[in-house]
Write a structure and sequence with these properties.
The complex is a heterodimer. Chain A contains two helices and five strands; from the N terminus they run βαβββαβ. Chain A is of the alpha+beta class. Chain A has one domain: Ferrous iron transport protein A (FeoA) (SH3 type barrels), CATH 2.30.30.90. By secondary structure, chain B is α/β, with parallel strands linked by helices. Classes of the chains: A alpha+beta, B alpha/beta.
Chain lengths: 74, 822
């Protein structure tokens, strides 16, 4: 399952990042490390991007980027 | 002098702390070769001189983003004495992630726990001495927004500097990776750098190319070696080095968090959560966004414009003052000095007049940045702009550029600075100048007033809304062609907690941006204005024409002479010099009377002119003196004749000038769009400032008989244009290249002359092609002006919608499930 499929209010833990280079490093630096808890706080009014709570702060991510994050729903 | 680098993650309140310690003793420049701001502050503390450099806010020290590269280059090249690391106390864990990377560099670090007030409000208690002990770095508590902690930070800097010799390098135990680090460290043991070799080794393992290049040609093999290490590490432990490092650093931050931080109120809804529930609500987000944009527009453009009603008289006073001290014209011979000075003053005040608008605008932007609304704006609209190769953060630049009835591309382009995605940033810089420029509005009004009296509202609607679609089309075209291979960035954007902006911070930032405008833009525009002046003045009138005009004025003088001969005041006006002085006196009087209002104002003008020359005043205001009245009526006549001759001279000068020649020589091309040389000249002269297009056109079409016809009517009657001509002109004006001021900021923001020239010539080509096509086709098909404009509008809107459906490619990163199988 990937993060892009999740809807508002769902929670998950990060299993793997299927990306490379810039995107992966950026995600790691922003706290997307394996095993971290992610909560989908809300979706933008036009459904994309999505707002996530991670490491106790808020971050937005486009859905097509979120599909690269393999997660396990809690 | 103690050199200090200020580092921290975005939204840690770094600039508040910077303002707190350096006050107004700061200046902004760019880091070499890039458009990232470099703020430097200087201050004294306990007899020590301290220079503090504000590094760009970065989440990490990898080298994927421009800001990270800039910050790392600075640390490497300048090797500061102390690093001050600002940490948001209310979100300490993520901010400590950067702290660990800073500690490894090998330069003593002072940690500042900022926003302590916010933290305690959220029930977060931090044991600062314990952190200090665990990390071996001094920890200072501060609250920048409240102005607390400045003194303590300075104290800590000086103390750390004095104990620099005793500083021991900080080490994280990277467990499985240690063997690899030692391996690389051995390779670079001989390198002479002031930074920690272990840190360099870690960076090399992170495959930091820029850093390896800095070490010199002898070490390029290290890149291969790092790759080999990565493969070996992956084979042995089934982990990537980058992910492994990030995990250890986050774990280290977690250890500090658990040992030193106590959270008493858990999972309580914060103010930010509550506000976001409204501001980002599915149904309320758009109305609120529109309201905010409307307010920004209303307060800056509309009220700022009203404010210029108060500043304009000051500028006009300055202009009058300059005119007063310049040599006066001798009948129809105006000294070059006078002409040039008036031209320059006019160009300067046209630009300076915008300063109130810009100041309000920059202040509002600073407030929105500080409050935290900017990323939310991007969050709401990203989906729309993404389709055109833009970014959610392109919203504000486009609105400022003129989303409604008119804006200005200068602040629009200047506000593209924060856009993280390089390709979208370039596309925004190049698209904003297509938006509806405020100074184009008088030009449209002139043409609409002349040719579309009935359909003015509809045409104005077309003009002001079509610009956004054109900007979107242009950015889509550019991002899928010339900008195709530019770097893009993932939309991993923090939505920071809301904060109240500080008054000082907002004022400092907006003043700095206004200063950039004055410093960079106004000076260059003035230089160009001189060139333009020369091109409009030279080569000037031919001998014959000069003679022709001289004869005219000699004739007028003799008529004047005959008429006033019988007056008892005749000896006051019986020489040419006296008449010339009288005409100047009269014209000056008229000009001054025009700008004052009410009986009071009129009286004061009268008094000042009476004081200046009582002997001449009686001819200006003869009251019941018959002999003076005689001179007065002759004076009026000769003044009008002179004005008329001056206008003819001006027209002839423009037509014969270099610019006029260029305008003529362009006719073979522009005739297809229906433009004659006059329109060409108007467009050419509008480069300096858009306002001059109206002035030039106005003077070219003014009726040579000095009647009171308005410019619209004069143009309608004298130009011989049809409404279709007018539409072609309007469309060219919509697409027309940015003014010089905009080009300068395009150069500043894109950091390249190539893109500046592109920003000039691409719209010209586009404009000529589209208006030629529409005019030629419309002439054959017999379209009316409104028809032509409507067809144009519909085509543009549909093209924009169609282009929005074509997906853009993302560059700079790959991956996803689609690559998994390979």
């Amino acid at each position: 399952m990937h993060l892009g499929e999740l809807r508002k209010g769902q929670k998950c833990t990060l299993v793997n990042i299927h990306g490379a280079g810039k995107l992966k490093q950026k995600l790691l630096d922003m706290g997307f490390i394996f095993g971290v808890d992610i909560e989908v706080v809300r979706e933008a009014p036009l459904y994309d991007p999505m707002e996530l709570r991670i490491q106790n702060y808020l971050v937005s991510l486009r859905r097509n980027e979120a599909t690269l994050l393999e997660v396990k729903v809690l | 002098m103690i050199k200090v680098a200020l580092a921290g993650q975005p939204n840690c309140g770094k600039s508040t702390i910077f303002n707190l310690v350096s006050g107004i003793h700061q200046h902004v420049a760019n880091y070499p070769g890039v458009t990232v701001d470099k703020k430097v502050g200087r201050f004294d503390y306990k007899d020590k001189k301290i220079e503090i450099v504000d590094l760009p806010g970065t989440y990490s020290f990898s080298s994927y983003s421009l800001e990270e590269r800039v910050a790392k280059d600075f640390l490497y090249d300048e090797s500061p004495d102390i690093i001050v690391n600002i940490v948001d106390a209310s979100n300490i864990k993520r901010h400590l992630y950067l702290t660990f990377q800073l500690l490894e560099i090998g330069i003593p670090v002072v940690i500042v726990l900022n926003m302590m007030d916010v933290a305690s409000r959220r029930g977060i208690y931090i044991d600062a001495p314990k952190i200090q002990e665990m990390l071996g770095a001094p920890v200072v508590c501060a609250s920048g927004a409240k102005g607390e902690g400045g003194e303590a930070i300075m104290e800590a800097i000086v103390l750390a500097y004095q104990q620099k010799e005793q500083y021991q390098n900080f080490k994280i135990n990277y467990e499985e990776l240690e063997a690899f680090i030692h391996e690389i460290e051995a390779e670079i043991a001989e390198v002479n750098v002031p930074l920690n070799r272990r840190w360099l080794a870690i960076k090399i393992l992170e495959e930091d190319k820029a850093l390896v290049e800095k070490l010199g040609d002898n070490f390029t093999y290290l890149q291969e070696k790092a790759k080999a290490c990565e493969e070996r590490f992956h084979a042995t432990y089934d982990k990537d080095i980058s992910a492994f490092l990030a995990a250890i650093r986050y774990d280290s931050a977690d250890v500090i968090f658990h040992k030193c931080v106590k959270v008493t109120k858990s999972h309580e809804e914060t103010l930010t959560d509550k506000v976001d529930k409204i501001v980002l609500n599915r149904w309320l987000a758009f109305p609120i966004l529109l309201l905010v944009m409307f307010l920004v527009y209303e307060l800056s453009i509309v009220y700022g414009y009203k404010l210029t009603d108060y500043t304009w008289p000051l500028l006009a006073m300055f202009k009058n003052f300059v005119i007063d001290i310049l040599p006066e014209p001798d009948l129809i011979r105006v000294p070059m000095m006078t002409d040039l000075s008036i031209w320059m003053v006019n160009s300067a005040i046209a630009l300076i007049n915008y300063i109130p608008i810009f100041f309000i605008l920059f202040a509002l932007i600073a407030i929105m940045e500080d409050v935290g609304y900017m990323p939310r704006l991007a969050f709401i609209l990203d989906k729309v702009f993404k389709k055109f190769g833009l970014h959610g953060q392109s919203t504000l630049p486009l609105v400022l550029g003129g989303a409604m009835v008119g804006g200005c591309a200068v602040p629009g382009v200047m506000s593209t600075k924060g856009i993280a995605d390089e390709r979208a940033r370039m596309a925004t810089i190049l698209a904003v100048p297509y938006m509806n420029c405020l100074a184009k509005v008088p030009f449209y009004t002139l043409l609409l007033g002349a040719f579309f009296k009935e359909e003015m509202g509809l045409m104005m609607f077309y003009i002001s809304t079509v610009t956004l679609f054109i900007a979107l089309i242009v950015s889509k075209l550019l991002t899928s062609t010339v900008l195709k291979n530019r770097e893009t960035a993932p939309f991993v954007m923090e939505l920071p907690p809301y904060h109240l902006p500080t008054f000082k911070g907002v004022i400092i930032r907006s003043a700095q941006r206004v200063w950039v405008y004055i410093n960079k833009v106004v000076t260059i525009v003035l230089a160009v204005a001189i060139v333009l002046f020369a091109m409009l003045q030279f080569p000037g009138l031919s001998e014959e024409s000069q003679q022709k005009y001289d004869e005219k004025i000699v004739q007028a003088l003799s008529t004047f002479d005959t008429k006033v001969k019988k007056s008892s005041y005749y000896e006051r006006v019986d020489t040419k010099e006296e008449v010339s002085a009288l005409i100047n006196y009269y014209d000056n009087y008229k000009a001054k009377r025009m700008v004052v209002s009410g009986a009071e104002g009129a009286k004061s003008v009268d008094e000042s002119f009476l004081k200046k020359d009582a002997k001449l005043f009686i001819f200006v205001k003869p009251e019941n003196d018959k002999d003076a009245k005689m001179i007065n009526s002759a004076l009026r006549q000769i003044s009008n004749v002179r004005k008329d001759v001056l206008r003819q001279i001006k027209n002839e000068k423009i037509e014969n000038s270099f610019l006029g020649m260029v305008g003529h020589s362009m006719e073979p091309v522009t005739q297809f769009a229906g433009f004659d040389w006059k329109i060409n000249v108007a467009f050419l002269s509008s480069f300096a400032a858009r306002e001059s297009a109206v002035a030039t056109l106005g003077s070219l079409y003014e009726n040579n008989k000095a009647d009171s016809k308005r410019a619209e009517e004069a143009m309608y009657e004298n130009s011989g244009y049809t409404p279709l001509h007018a539409v072609a002109i309007i469309i060219f004006m919509i697409l027309t290249p940015p003014c010089i001021a905009t080009m300068i900021v395009v150069k500043m923001q894109s950091n390249s002359y190539k893109w500046m020239f592109f920003a000039i010539f691409f719209p010209i080509t586009l404009g000529v092609i589209i208006s030629s096509f529409l005019f030629s086709f419309g002439s054959v098909a017999g379209w009316s002006g409104v028809e032509a404009m409507s067809y144009f509008y519909v085509v543009v809107v549909f093209l924009a919608l169609f282009l929005g459906l074509i997906p853009n490619r993302q560059n700079g990163w790959l991956g996803g499930f689609k690559h998994k199988s390979s």
